[in-house]
Write a structure and sequence with these properties.
Layout (H helix, E strand, L loop, with lengths): L2 H7 L15 E14 L2 H5 L7 E2 L3 E12 L3 E14 L2 E11 L2 H11 L3 E3 L1 E7 L2 E8 L2 E9 L3 E2 L2 H8 L3 E8 L5 E9 L1 E11 L2 E5 L14 E14 L3 E5 L25
Parallel strand pairs: 5-6, 5-11
Antiparallel strand pairs: 1-3, 1-15, 2-4, 3-4, 4-5, 7-8, 8-9, 9-14, 10-13, 11-12, 12-16, 13-15
């Protein structure tokens, strides 16, 4: 393969058969279970990076069912997003995400910088209750229960929430282990078609786990529950802050240790 061929085809890894296709990434019948809860302010301060600003000590725990998404397929996701402010505009910071499909894990991390890990989230409709669970292996890490479609939500308010900017901390290491990319990325959900929006009573339990550490932001009080179904496009991102830019005191590269010379012991 010629050098120019590598440059022209370098989109994602592996070069000759990437783990995910090019966009756009359109989601149909994307189902959200969202439990908003109050948490410990010091715990939030420990995980939300500057220059993002906290607005109040709230977390939105989400279970998202994506049965039909272009390029990424059929999968389920779970995680925590945090209301923040950046340059005077309100938005959300994506703190954690756990899902069960390789393509959106690879694509999410490589393209946008989503903090995605492999786990087993699930949404189940059980009579008059909708249940969301997150397992990591055999361990239960999160359990949410919501009433089924109790009260119609304000559609304009829901659309306004979905249209707010979202923020990610994208980190790509150099080959020596130092950060090569460390950026605050902003993205938007686009072309939203809101199909259903409901307010509902909700409960949420988070369990301590060494890898799926959702309990790092403990539940102090349940604030609200929502059940949403929408079609939308996941827009590509833009870099709004470079942590390794000028004046950032970028860490020096660590040089790999020299290889030891091989000794011929034959004969």
């Amino acid at each position: 393969m010629k050098l120019q061929d590598v440059r022209c085809n370098a989109y994602a890894m592996p070069l000759t058969n990437p783990s995910f296709p090019r966009g756009p990434y359109r989601f149909f019948d994307r189902e959200y279970l969202i439990v908003t809860y109050r948490t410990d302010l010091d715990a939030l301060r420990a995980v939300v990076p500057e220059p993002l600003e906290l607005t109040e000590p709230l977390v939105k725990y989400e279970f998202i069912r994506m049965p039909d998404s272009t390029g990424f397929g059929d999968y389920t996701e779970s995680g925590q997003v945090i209301p923040v402010r950046f340059e005077g505009a309100e938005g959300t910071y994506v703190h954690s995400m756990y899902l069960d499909d390789d393509a959106p894990i690879a694509g999410g991390r490589e393209l946008w910088g989503f903090p995605k890990k492999l786990a087993q989230p699930k949404i189940s409709h059980e009579g008059e209750v909708v249940t969301g669970t997150l397992h990591y292996g055999q361990a239960l890490c999160a359990l949410a229960t919501l009433g089924y479609k109790h009260r119609a939500a304000d559609r304009n308010a829901v659309l306004g929430s979905l249209r707010k900017p979202n923020y990610l901390l994208k980190i790509i290491p150099h080959v020596d282990g130092t950060p090569r990319i460390c950026e605050l990325v902003r993205y938007h959900l686009q072309d939203i078609v809101l199909k259903e929006a409901w307010n509902t009573p909700a409960e949420l339990q988070l369990f301590r786990h060494v890898i799926a550490d959702v309990a790092r932001l403990p539940v102090l009080q349940i604030v609200a529950g929502q059940h949403i179904v929408a079609d939308l496009t996941l827009g590509l991102g833009e870099v709004v802050f470079d942590y390794l830019g000028a004046g950032s005191n970028r860490p020096a590269l660590r040089r790999a240790p020299p290889q030891r010379e091989l000794v011929n012991v034959e004969g």
